[in-house]
Model the fold of this input.
Amino acid sequence: MILSNISVPLLGMVDTGVVGHLDNSTYLGAVAIGSTIFTFIYIGMNFLRMGTTGIAAQSYGADDNDGLRVALGQALIVSLAIALALIVLQVPISKLALALLGGEAETREHAATYFFIRVWSAPGTLANYVLIGWFLGLQNARVPLLIFLTINITNIVLDLVFVLVLGMKVDGVALASVIAEYTGLAVGATFALAALRDRTGRWPVERFRKLAAYRAFFSVNANLFVRTMALMFALAFVTAQGARLGPAILAANAVLMNFQNLTALGLDGIAHAAEAMVGKAVGQKDDDALRRTVNLTLRWSAIFAAGFTLVYIVAGPLIVRTLTDLPDVRETAMLYLPWLIASPLISVWCFLYDGVYVGMTRAREMRNIMLVSTFLVFLPVWYVTQPFGNHGLWFAFMVFLAARGIGMHIGYRRTL
Done:
C-alpha cells in the first residue's frame, strides 16, 4: 500500500513537471487550481473507499461472503449516482469552484479547460475508489497496487505524449487523467469478478433496491463525507490563499504541495494496512489483536515519517528544481520548503489514526475531530498569523495537522 500510495503524488509531480517547463507560469497555476478542484471533489468522495474498507474488512473477519457482496454492490451503486450528478452539474460546479479559488483571469481560463475535460473521469475514478477499498477489506493489497500502477503509468505516458509530443497544454494533462482512470477500472473489475467467483455466496438483490437497506452504509459514510469535506476545505483554503498572495506564491505552493501529498499518501500506506487489520480484528472481536495492530503500525509510521523528513532535507532542493525551471517559482518554493521538511513528523499521527478509526468504523468521532481541527484550530490560527503571509499560512496548516493527531490519540486512548 505504501508503493500504491506513493505512485499517486509521483503522478502529480509528473503533471507539475510537464507544465512547469512550459513557457508560461499560468499553465502551472491552472493545473494547480484545476487539480485542487478535483482533489476536493474526488478525495472528498474518498469516503467511498474508506467506508468500503471498514465494512468489507469486518465482513471478511466474520467470514460473511454475502456481506462482502453487499459492501461492494452498494458502494458501486452510490459511486455511479454521485459521478452522474457531477457530470450533470459540471457547469455550476466549475463556476463556483473557480470563483472561490480565485487567481488571474488567464489562469482561471486554462483551469476551466482542464475541469471540463477531467470531469468525465468521475465514473471511473469513484468506481476505482470502491474497488480499492473492497480489496483492502479482503486483506489484498496487490490488486490496489496494480490498479494504481495501471492508472499512473498510463497517465504519465499520456502526459508526455500529449504535452511534449503533440503540443497540447493543460487539456493534454486532463485528457491523460481521464483515459488512465478507465484503464485502471478495467483492471480492477477483472480481478473483482475473479475474487467473487472464488467466494461462494449470493447477491441479496433486495439490499440494493431499497433505500432503507443502505442505512448502515450511509451511517458510516455520511460522517466520513463530512470529515473529508472539512479536510478538503483546509487543502483548498491553502491554494486559495496562495492565489491571493500572487502568481509566484500560488505556483510555489503547488510545487510544495507535492511534498505534502507524497508524505500523506506514503504514510497512508501503513494507515490502509491498519484499516484492514483493525477491521478484521473488530470482525473477529479480538481486542488483543486490535491493540497489537495499533502499536505496531504506530511504530512503523514513526520510522517512515523520519525517513520522509530525511529525504526532504537531502533531496528537497533537487525535487524543487526538477519540478520547475521558472526562477521566481524556484526561489519562492525554497523559501517555504522547511515547513514541508517538518511536516512528516507533525502529520504522521493523524494519518495513522485515520486508518485505525476507519477499521473500527468510528466515523462520527473522525468527523467531530476534523471539524474542530479545521474550524476551531486551523482558521483561527491562520487569521492570527496573516501578517506573516505565506509563512503564517503554512504554520496554520501544520497546527491543523497536529490538532487532528492529538485529538484522535486522546479519543483512541479513551476506548482502552
